[in-house]
Design goal:
Layout (H helix, E strand, L loop, with lengths): L2 E11 L9 E5 L4 E11 L5 E8 L12 E5 L4 E3 L7 E2 L4 E6 L5 E10 L1
Antiparallel strand pairs: 1-9, 2-8, 3-6, 3-7, 3-9, 4-5, 4-8
Length: 114
């Protein structure tokens, strides 16, 4: 077994606004990944909700509940505490959508385990 510390998501802008149009932020290709840190920044003048999913291969966000739902205050950066400690399964994805397009930026780091 090999473990590597990685930035899983690097300041990605969320464009999707529904669970049917989530943005894929990270894919655990041929490995698993444990989330150790997650933050989101809201550049909007109003608070914006974010919903984050961990999806096994072949499962759509419309079929499961999000693992983290949080309201991000206007102009603030916040920790996505509900996401920390979760594992993205082999070939699974980390995906998200926001209440407003192009205003939330997500950064996630963790361990990739092969």
């Amino acid at each position: 077994m090999s473990v590597s510390i990685k930035q899983l998501v690097g300041n990605d802008l969320i464009t999707g606004t529904t669970d049917a149009a989530v943005d894929t932020l990270y894919t655990a290709s041929n490995l698993t990944a444990q989330i150790n840190a997650a933050t989101v920044h809201n550049s909007n003048g109003s608070a914006v909700d974010i919903s984050v999913y961990i999806l096994p291969s072949g499962v759509a966000a419309t079929a499961v509940d999000p693992v983290a739902v949080q309201n991000i205050a206007a102009g603030e950066s916040e920790v996505l505490a509900d996401l920390i400690g979760h594992v993205v399964p082999k070939d699974g994805t980390l995906a998200a959508f926001a209440g407003t397009t192009d205003v939330l930026r997500v950064t996630v780091s963790g361990l990739e385990i092969t």
